[in-house]
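User: Predict the structure for this protein chain, please.
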Amino acid sequence: MKTYNKLVRDKIPEICEANGATPHTRIIKDDNEYLTALCDKLGEEAQEVKEDPSLEELADTLEVIQSIGRVLGYTPDQIEVARLQKAQERGGFDERVFLISTE
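Assistant: Here is the predicted structure, written as structure tokens:
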């Protein structure tokens, strides 16, 4: 038996069964618990991007971010508008500025 205790994509139990495993799952009904699980998942996905900066890992991270947005009542379009506004006001990360210190 392998223990995971983490949020997984909706079809993972079916995939486990197709691979001969018996998944034991529960549905998170509480929004606060779900948000916490999503935030934990975001940390997991960020670590995976760090280890493997691939398109697939970036897509996983974006999926989690959009799910967090839905829990908080935001659409993907609203998140994108906020991202663009912040980029306009504070810039993006294209110039690769690394702040060492201030005085």
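DSSP finds four helices and no strands in the chain.
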